Structure formats: C-alpha cells, structure tokens
Amino acid sequence: MSDALEPIRQKIDALDHDLVRLLNERLGLAAEIGKVKRSSGGSIYASEREDKVLRKVCGLNEGPIKDEALKAIYREIMSAAIALEKATKIVYLGPEATNTHAAAIKKFGASIDYEGMGTIADLFTAVEKGEADYAVIPIENSTEGSVREALDNFVESDLKIVAQIYLEISHSLISNESLEGITKVYSKDQALAQCRHWLQRHLPHAQLIDASSTARAVEIAANEPGAAAVAGELAAQHHDVPVIAANIQDKSDNTTRFFVLGKKPAGAVGSGRDMSSFLISLGDQASSHSGALLKMLMPMAERGINLSKIESRPSKRRPWDYYFFVDVSGHYQDANMQEALSELSAFCPMVKWLGSYPVVN
Ligand SMILES: O=C(O)C(=O)C[C@]1(C(=O)O)C=C[C@@H](O)C=C1
C-alpha cells in the first residue's frame, strides 16, 4: 500500500512547499499594508476588505474544497495578517468560553489576543481608552430580542460598529451530576429563557438561578453538589464538566447577533452589501405630533433604503421620551443615505451614525 501512497504524498509535499512560500509572501504584503496603516492611522481590521476577499476566493473556487472550509482557512490567514500588522487585542463579554468569546474567535481567528470583561459598559470603555482595539458585544437574540444594556451604551459613546457576527447558539445541560441528582440550574437569564420548555419537562422541580454569564454558571456547577449549568459546549470543555444533554434550546434556529466595535469606521463594500445603524431622537414631536414616527421613516423609505429593524428605548431624560435604534440597508457615505440624513436632521434633534458594516460574515 505504501508504494501506492508514496508518489501522491511526494506531490502533496511539493504543493505544501509552494503553499507555505505563497502564504508567507501574502503575509509579507500584509506587513507592508500594516506599515502604511500605522503611519496613516488607518484601521488594521478592515471588515469591508475581508468581505471582498472571502467573496473573491469563493468565486474562484471550483472544488472539491467547500466554500465553508475555504472561508475557515482564509479566516486564519487574515487573523495571522492582522496580528502581523499590529499586536491586536479584542475584548469580549467574558469570562472565557462565553458565546461572545466564541463569536469573537469566529470573526478574528486564533492569532489575536482576547480578553473577557465583566460588563458591556467595560467593553465600551476599554476601546474608548485605547486599552483594546476592538470589542465584541451581543446585540440581539432571535428568540429573546435585544440586549438592552448594549443599546443604551451607544447613547453616550462615539465608538463605531465595524462588523456584525451571527452565531447559532446551542445550549447544553452541563453538570457533574446525573439528571436525577440535579436540584439547581444556573445560567444567564436569556439562556434559561431560551431553554424554558426543556427545563420544565426534564427538571420540573429544579431551582433556576440567574448567573452573570453562561460561563460563570459552569464554574459554579463545577464546584457545587446538585448544581447544573446551561451553557455552550465551549464552556463545558473549558471547565472540564460533562455535557448531560446537548441542544436543549426550545428553538433550533436560535441565533445571536453580535457587533464588533472600534474607534474608526469601516469602509464600504458596495454592491448592496453594506448595512448601517443609527440612533434617532424625535424629541417632543413623538408624543405631540401625529404621524411623527412615520415622518421619521419616510426620508429613507422614499430613497429605497430598506429598514430592517427599529427598536425604541426610553431616553431616561423624561418619561415617555424615546430613542429609536434603526438598522438600514446601505453605507453612510452612499449619496441617497446622505440625502435622507440631511432631511432627517432638519426635524430630528438627534441623528447619530453608529456605524456601517458588511451585511453578513
Ligand atoms: O487589505 C487590508 O487592509 C489588510 O490589512 C490585509 C487583510 C488580508 O489579509 O487580506 C488583513 C486584515 C484586514 O482585516 C483585511 C485584509
């Protein structure tokens, strides 16, 4: 058998030789880009360029490698490029092994430095103060809705959304006990809510206890007799606690959307592949003028800018005064977007651009 393998392996060896040389040649060019960016103050991570690179290589692909595998390889190549251009630090909602950590790794790969932090406010502060280059925050879940703390932090901050990440969330029941021995289940409130029916059916008498994160819940379950945690498998592996039941979430298409925040805005991809987020306030008009909300949406709608999300949050300045968070199609620099924004600014006391970013990962 080895006789038959040998000549094929020799060809693989020759290709690996070329691949390593080509990879290093590519990284050498990234290092040159890094020099230019560092001297001009440009953003090291360029989500719009990564989107174009990934689409280009998938377009070139004639198989047998699957696009998903090719993208994973390129994720790591560009991760190494970022690290070479500048030592880059990403902060995420910690502790280690949370879903936000998993989302950050999915976007930035293995060559980057990561640090978990306790609150979403801490993440904003770390990037604002320059202690980290980018932050990854959870923004909304397909079953539980928006993460309010994330929205509220945008009001005061000048950070820009530079990318978004979608991660399919799968929860496991994690414990050193067998199912019969579990009397308490710890997790983050949203995760407990996402598994409500499964927990009612299989652990009707267990006490459900809120923890600061899913990863913290596993840490508690690792040490407390009778305790279990609801968390992702990354956390189970990280704390070396067995998975008792996998995929216990009530909805199979349970997805969380995350934002990547940085100091400098992302450029445009073009070809309808950009999205933008804004924070808009109508001031007193919202309660005193009929049709004010409709008027707020018209400048975009009339120009073919598609509204994909609108969410209101109390302004906390006066009762019944709201901020509106909107997600729309297109980039901030697009001519039709600029026209719509100048029309909006004429009657809205606040129209704040939160960032523009590629549509999907
Ligand atoms: O083109 C750039 O701006 C680069 O820095 C190079 C590169 C790449 O490796 O292709 C690396 C990191 C960026 O996020 C985007 C692309």
TrEMBL record:
<keyword id="KW-0057">Aromatic amino acid biosynthesis</keyword>
<dbReference type="InterPro" id="IPR036979">
    <property type="entry name" value="CM_dom_sf"/>
</dbReference>
<keyword id="KW-0456">Lyase</keyword>
<feature type="domain" description="Chorismate mutase">
    <location>
        <begin position="1"/>
        <end position="89"/>
    </location>
</feature>
<keyword id="KW-0413">Isomerase</keyword>
<comment type="pathway">
    <text>Metabolic intermediate biosynthesis; prephenate biosynthesis; prephenate from chorismate: step 1/1.</text>
</comment>
<dbReference type="Pfam" id="PF00800">
    <property type="entry name" value="PDT"/>
</dbReference>
<dbReference type="GO" id="GO:0005737">
    <property type="term" value="C:cytoplasm"/>
</dbReference>
<keyword id="KW-0511">Multifunctional enzyme</keyword>
<comment type="pathway">
    <text>Amino-acid biosynthesis; L-phenylalanine biosynthesis; phenylpyruvate from prephenate: step 1/1.</text>
</comment>
<dbReference type="GO" id="GO:0009094">
    <property type="term" value="P:L-phenylalanine biosynthetic process"/>
</dbReference>
<comment type="function">
    <text>Catalyzes the Claisen rearrangement of chorismate to prephenate and the decarboxylation/dehydration of prephenate to phenylpyruvate.</text>
</comment>
<dbReference type="InterPro" id="IPR001086">
    <property type="entry name" value="Preph_deHydtase"/>
</dbReference>
<dbReference type="InterPro" id="IPR036263">
    <property type="entry name" value="Chorismate_II_sf"/>
</dbReference>
<dbReference type="InterPro" id="IPR045865">
    <property type="entry name" value="ACT-like_dom_sf"/>
</dbReference>
<dbReference type="InterPro" id="IPR018528">
    <property type="entry name" value="Preph_deHydtase_CS"/>
</dbReference>
<dbReference type="InterPro" id="IPR010957">
    <property type="entry name" value="G/b/e-P-prot_chorismate_mutase"/>
</dbReference>
<keyword id="KW-0584">Phenylalanine biosynthesis</keyword>
<keyword id="KW-0963">Cytoplasm</keyword>
<dbReference type="GO" id="GO:0004664">
    <property type="term" value="F:prephenate dehydratase activity"/>
</dbReference>
<feature type="site" description="Essential for prephenate dehydratase activity">
    <location>
        <position position="256"/>
    </location>
</feature>
<dbReference type="GO" id="GO:0004106">
    <property type="term" value="F:chorismate mutase activity"/>
</dbReference>
<dbReference type="GO" id="GO:0046417">
    <property type="term" value="P:chorismate metabolic process"/>
</dbReference>
<protein>
    <recommendedName>
        <fullName>Bifunctional chorismate mutase/prephenate dehydratase</fullName>
        <ecNumber>4.2.1.51</ecNumber>
        <ecNumber>5.4.99.5</ecNumber>
    </recommendedName>
</protein>
<keyword id="KW-0028">Amino-acid biosynthesis</keyword>
<dbReference type="InterPro" id="IPR008242">
    <property type="entry name" value="Chor_mutase/pphenate_deHydtase"/>
</dbReference>
<dbReference type="InterPro" id="IPR002912">
    <property type="entry name" value="ACT_dom"/>
</dbReference>
<dbReference type="Pfam" id="PF01842">
    <property type="entry name" value="ACT"/>
</dbReference>
<feature type="domain" description="Prephenate dehydratase">
    <location>
        <begin position="89"/>
        <end position="263"/>
    </location>
</feature>
<dbReference type="Pfam" id="PF01817">
    <property type="entry name" value="CM_2"/>
</dbReference>
<feature type="domain" description="ACT">
    <location>
        <begin position="281"/>
        <end position="358"/>
    </location>
</feature>
<dbReference type="InterPro" id="IPR002701">
    <property type="entry name" value="CM_II_prokaryot"/>
</dbReference>
